[in-house]
Amino acid sequence: MPIPNNGDKYDSPALFSAADAIDGQGGDTGVEIPKAVIITYQRDFFEKILAERTGDPIPIVRDFEVHPIDETVGVVVGFSIGAPATGTVAENLIAAGAEALCIVGGSGTLQRSIEPTDAIISDEAIRDEGVSYHYLPPEAEAEPSPELTERLEARFEESEVPTHRGTTWTTSAFYRETVAEIEEYADAGVVSVEMEAAALFAVAEFRGVDAAAVFDIGDLLTGEEWDPGIEYENVQPKLLDPAIAALHDHLNAEGSDADGRDGNGES
């Protein structure tokens, strides 16, 4: 049976929202958090950020909090990996006031031409998980925000990290990435495989906020072999500054657009 089971889902209101859940669990949707938030998953990377550049955490609910990097950009971690966790975290951040979300995460690559020290910017996600189908109909594409993605790419072009832009394959079945799928997607030019992008893009589109994703390379998957990347360099720390700069660029541009509309009294 396809997901969702109920075909009328897209026109039906939810019983409760992230804002309801936060307020009902002792949180506060009225707290002021940075307008842009980086979502990451690797604890060692997060601990490095905490040690060097974040302010006091801002609690949203229970053990979930945002760590501000500066006045407009924060970072979150401390939850599980995958689409369901990412979708829930995105909903909570949006309910608390976030306007732009960016994954800085890890992925595998399906292309031998992509080096272990490169990065990948996603411009579309193949929806091979479940979360996105509860936000977008099956025929819809899961895509990041074009403007934020362009700004992300521009900042990475100025960085020391070689970067590739292309389609990512989001799957929830880590141990069922089959040879047939890998060969098919590699031949089609798909650049990466990960577990979160499609969910973030779908939630962001549904809620009307901006989203993007950039990944480092943790392993190589081909139809003949799996290279688990034991000797790969973790380049995620090098991805942080370009991502922060792109989020600043985006918020500044969006603010300028809003000022222009307000000043003219029209859109």
TrEMBL record:
GO MF entries: purine-nucleoside phosphorylase activity
The record's CDD domains line, in alphabetical order, gives: NP-I_spr0068
The membrane-spanning stretches of this chain are none
Q: Name one GO biological process term.
A: purine nucleoside catabolic process
Q: Name one GO cellular component term.
A: cytosol
Q: Where does the Nucleoside phosphorylase domain lie? A: 65-225
Q: Which InterPro entries match?
A: Nucleoside_phosphorylase_d (IPR000845), Nucleoside_phosphorylase_sf (IPR035994)
Which protein are we looking at?
A: Phosphorylase superfamily protein
Give the species: Haladaptatus paucihalophilus DX253
Source species taxonomy: Archaea, Methanobacteriati, Methanobacteriota, Stenosarchaea group, Halobacteria
